[in-house]
């Protein structure tokens, strides 16, 4: 690990001022410190923001409001999360080991870097780590890589589980920075790689995530998260699906579907949602709709299995949410 300076801040203004001058925020540090040890990340200055009052978890009417510094374990266990948005709790539990959930912050989880092995190999070409160097994964070992949203410059998947649930539920986020405060959908935080894969999010320099708001809805109670992976714990998704259904009798009034493990960012499946609306609950409906998830897929040499696994995962998650599993 290369030398760096470290300071704690007590106010948002001090944090934003330091970050605008080139410092990096650190909260749980569960990703950043690992990357610093490998010299993939080389910040010269870290600013500890844990003293900022942004760890609250509360209900605001039917909405769940989560402070950006709330730990994953606290959010998953909180009574309001379980009452209002059990899908969030399930995705958090599936997303990391208990030790990591105790350390990792919600804001940091959304901003975690990709888990592509070539990103961590300093002797491999990686446009995220070294723009313009190339992408070793495209012609390399790419079984875990993306089939949606890829480019000729990057095929890495976004690793967050809870981000998939937040995108499915239409969550928004509030940020503050040198230019003031703004709010936008969580889905808009994540960039497609295009020809600039080193630019992973839409935050402006110095901006700080303050809170996440998950809107209430009649679909919130009938929601499930399914994660398919190589082993039962401490593993990233091959394919995952966050689904939520509002039903009236045997008819689907509204559906929310997002997937992970297959996209360069959490991927909202709006065509699948539209195909489910107004249809009867059941495997035939789920199967026909899930097939639409394959639109735009671009499998690589070793991850073609995801083309078959993706719709199957969505169908199974829908069956779990719809009570037909």
TrEMBL record:
Domain FAD-binding PCMH-type: residue ranges: 1-219
GO molecular function, one term: oxidoreductase activity
Entries under InterPro entries matching the protein: CO_DH_flav_C, CO_DH_flav_C_dom_sf, Diverse_Substr_Oxidored, FAD-bd_PCMH, FAD-bd_PCMH-like_sf, FAD-bd_PCMH_sub1, FAD-bd_PCMH_sub2, Mopterin_DH_FAD-bd
Superkingdom: Bacteria
Xref: SUPFAM superfamilies: CO dehydrogenase flavoprotein C-terminal domain-like (SSF55447), FAD-binding/transporter-associated domain-like (SSF56176)
Keyword annotations from UniProtKB, A to Z: FAD, Flavoprotein
PANTHER family: OXIDOREDUCTASE (PTHR42659:SF1), XANTHINE DEHYDROGENASE SUBUNIT C-RELATED (PTHR42659)
Protein name as catalogued: Xanthine dehydrogenase family protein subunit M
Organism: Microvirga makkahensis
């Amino acid at each position: 690990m290369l030398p760096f300076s470290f300071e704690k801040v007590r106010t948002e203004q001090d944090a934003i001022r330091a970050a605008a001058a080139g410092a990096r925020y650190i909260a749980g540090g569960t990703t950043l410190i690992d990357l610093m040890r490998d010299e993939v990340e080389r910040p010269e200055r870290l600013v500890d923001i844990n003293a900022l009052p942004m760890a609250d978890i509360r209900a605001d009417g039917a909405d769940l409001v989560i402070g950006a510094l709330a730990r994953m374990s606290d959010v998953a266990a909180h009574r309001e999360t379980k009452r209002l948005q059990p899908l969030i709790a399930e995705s958090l539990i599936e997303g990391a080991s208990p030790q990591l959930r105790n350390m990792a912050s919600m804001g940091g989880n959304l901003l975690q870097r990709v888990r592509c092995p070539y990103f961590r190999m300093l002797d491999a070409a990686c446009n995220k780590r070294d723009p313009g160097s190339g992408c070793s994964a495209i012609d390399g070992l790419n079984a875990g890589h993306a089939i949606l949203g890829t480019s000729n410059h990057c095929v890495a998947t976004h690793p967050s589980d809870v981000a998939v649930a937040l995108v499915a539920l239409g969550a928004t986020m509030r940020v503050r920075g040198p230019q003031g405060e703004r709010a936008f959908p969580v889905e808009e935080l994540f960039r497609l790689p295009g020809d600039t894969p080193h630019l992973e999010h839409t935050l402006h320099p110095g901006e700080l995530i303050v809170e996440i708001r998950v809107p209430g809805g009649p679909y919130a109670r009938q929601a499930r998260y399914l994660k398919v992976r190589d082993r039962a714990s401490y593993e990233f998704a091959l394919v995952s699906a966050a689904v939520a259904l509002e039903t009236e009798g045997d008819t689907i009034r509204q559906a929310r579907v997002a997937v992970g493990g297959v996209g360069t960012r959490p991927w909202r499946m709006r065509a699948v949602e539209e195909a489910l609306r107004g249809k009867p609950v059941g495997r035939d409906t789920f199967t026909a709709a899930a097939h639409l998830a394959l639109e735009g897929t671009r499998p690589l040499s070793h991850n073609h299995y995801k083309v078959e696994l993706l719709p199957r995962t969505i169908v199974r998650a829908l069956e779990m949410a719809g009570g037909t599993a």
